[in-house]
Automatic annotation (TrEMBL):
Domain of life: Bacteria
One Gene Ontology term of the molecular function aspect: phosphatidylcholine lysophospholipase activity
InterPro entries: Ester_Hydrolysis_Enzymes (IPR051532), SGNH_hydro (IPR013830), SGNH_hydro_sf (IPR036514)
Species this protein is from: Gordonia terrae C-6
Entry protein name: Lysophospholipase L1-related esterase
Length: 297
């Protein structure tokens, strides 16, 4: 959150807002930085081998496995906010894929807390240097690009390049696009709306870049259900910014079908088409509420 003030200021300037708006957004950014602490800790380590019967073990060079799943990205990809490794999104995905496919899944997480799209290439290159080639890769990235003021199109292009590198290496790639800041109620309005607008623009650009590179984009605005907004204390971790175990479980619910489909294990039923923008968050917008009032007249 340390760069949120600059992001808001830049957006206000681009919109032609006056000094009053500029000062208000910077003041709210300072407030948000107090409420949402800057995390320097690491997420729980869940790297290992997951079997269809529910057992797991640490990976060794002698371990035999059927599928190699690797997660890249930022703190959300790492699972920051989860209290145990079992609660992180990567482990939840690995366990479900093992159970659904009846295969032994090796799982590794290469995500780095605080990473933006600029860091994806290094994460992937570090893996390739060790002569590792995943069968499936999941990428979650975008929120830090918003708070770091990285422009949407270059950020999306870097993501597309990362997807292309993984696809060239033989991996199926599933990408969770930038989440919607509209559910982070610890960020006051109108700053939250400014960040939300920036994030949704990035998510749209990410979808196009991922598809063009041969990956499967998953719009994580789909996370923003009525329950997520109604029970933020349940869906968000104590830092009020990162998801909790329940929030990560919801993310896994969305990502697992795409992972299974990418490796031909989903079955004949078509995948559900997730919304591009969360209806739950749209319902909270002032303009939406005003329109509803006029409709009732």
């Amino acid at each position: 959150m340390r760069d949120v003030g600059a992001t808001a200021a830049a957006t206000a300037g681009a919109a032609g807002a006056g000094w009053a708006a500029y000062n208000l957004l910077n003041s709210q950014a300072a407030e948000a930085r107090v409420v949402i602490p800057h995390r320097t800790d690491n997420a729980p380590d869940g790297d290992g081998v997951y079997r269809p019967d529910g057992t797991s073990e640490r990976f060794t060079r002698d371990t035999v496995y059927d599928l190699y799943l690797v997660v890249f990205g930022d703190s959300t990809a790492a699972g920051l906010g989860a209290e145990t490794a079992e609660e992180t999104p990567g482990v939840q995905i690995a366990r479900r894929v093992a159970a659904e496919t009846d295969q032994v899944v090796r799982y590794a997480n290469k995500a780095i807390v605080g990473a933006t799209s600029k860091g994806l290439a290094a994460q992937i290159e570090a893996m390739f240097v060790h002569h590792e080639r995943p069968d499936v890769a999941v990428i979650l990235v975008g929120a830090n690009d918003v708070t770091a003021r990285n422009s949407p199109l270059p950020s999306a292009r870097r993501l597309g390049e990362a997807v292309h590198a993984l696809v060239d290496g033989g991996a199926k790639v599933v990408v969770g696009t930038c989440p919607d800041f509209g559910v982070v109620t610890a960020i006051p309005q109108p700053l939250r709306a400014v960040l939300r607008r920036w994030g949704l623009a990035l998510a749209a650009a990410q979808r196009s870049a991922v598809r063009a590179a041969g990956g499967r984009p998953v719009p994580l605005a789909d996370l923003l259900t009525e329950e997520f907004l109604a029970r933020p204390e349940h869906m968000l971790s104590p830092d009020r910014f990162h998801p909790s175990a329940a929030g990560y479980e919801l993310a896994a619910d969305i990502l697992v079908p795409e992972v299974l489909a990418s490796i031909g294990e989903w079955g004949p039923t078509p995948l559900p088409e997730p919304p591009k923008v969360s209806e739950a968050v749209e319902e909270t917008r002032l303009i939406t509420r005003v329109r509803k009032q006029f409709t009732r007249l």
